[in-house]
Design a protein that fits this description.
alpha/beta, Rossmann fold, six-stranded parallel beta sheet
């Protein structure tokens, strides 16, 4: 069972009611539980602590983020990439550095009064994730690096994500700005591409037929599940609402819909207390 996090297990700092009980019931039944998030802002260790605070024990190896998936992709397919210009939060930078990459934050790549002059050195790649401090300076650095020949890699393309107070811009908003300014399309790692789900199944030793993904975003979670060949349950606790369900077609249409964790449990034959 693969759970998305934002909008499924929690919204911001608030747990989704019933999510901890659902996960506990699945583990008690012997079901393998994994977590897959497009959010690149935190390290996997930070997610372990965050889940623990919500009464959900988890190991670091049970969590795949779009940053960890990007690292795996680089090691497997682009080993020549070592020097990275990063548009992202501290958690993304920390994970990249811990993996051995030479990382320069985009804000440090150009002076405060940057006027379009060439970068002092061109990185091997620009990696863009969710950056709450995204501004013109960071956009300029990323654009200049890509125009100078750096690869453009996006951890994910989510344009927004849910919080207790409503929706806020996601990494896809930053990626779109860099794409528009540079004229280059990024290599996309996170959902809706299936790489995260495929990696989880490979490490767990399970097949698509044995796997179910639970997500709140039809454009990311449900499409990724379709592309990975696994079943999906759309929960209406995050991005999607009941009014959107009837309009879902093709890859965006889930195998089942649930209003929340209790209904997910019922679909899976679990009675939650």
């Amino acid at each position: 069972m693969i759970f998305d996090l934002d909008g499924v297990v929690y919204r911001g700092d608030q747990p989704v009611p019933g999510a901890a009980a659902l996960i506990a019931a699945l583990r008690h039944r012997g079901t393998l539980v994994r977590f897959a998030t497009n959010n690149s802002m935190s390290t996997r260790a930070a997610y372990v602590a965050r889940l623990a605070d919500m009464g959900i024990p988890a190991d670091r190896d049970e969590i795949v983020t779009s940053t960890s998936a990007t690292i795996d992709y680089l090691r497997a397919h682009l080993p020549e990439v070592q020097r990275i210009l990063a548009v992202g939060a501290d958690g993304m930078l920390a994970e990249l550095r811990a993996a051995g990459f030479d990382v320069t934050p985009a804000a440090e790549a150009v002076p405060a009064d940057y006027n379009g002059a060439p970068l002092a050195s061109v990185p091997d790649a620009v990696i863009a994730g969710l950056d709450p401090q995204f501004d013109y300076r960071r956009l300029s650095a990323a654009t200049s690096a890509i125009l100078a020949g750096a690869r453009f890699i996006a951890t994910n393309a989510d344009t927004r994500y849910p919080t207790p107070d409503g929706f806020v811009p996601g990494a896809g908003s930053m990626v779109a700005a860099i794409r528009a300014a540079s004229g280059s399309d990024p290599l996309l790692i996170g959902k809706p591409e299936p790489a995260i789900f495929n990696a989880i199944m490979e490490r767990a030793g399970v097949t698509p037929a044995e796997t179910v993904a639970i997500g709140d975003n039809p454009d990311a979670d449900i499409v990724a599940a379709r592309r990975a060949g696994i079943r999906s349950i759309l929960v209406l606790t995050g991005v999607a609402d009941a009014g959107a369900v009837d309009r879902l077609r093709g890859e965006r249409r889930p195998d089942a819909v649930a209003h929340g964790p209790a209904e997910v449990g019922a679909l899976l034959g679990l009675a939650l207390s």
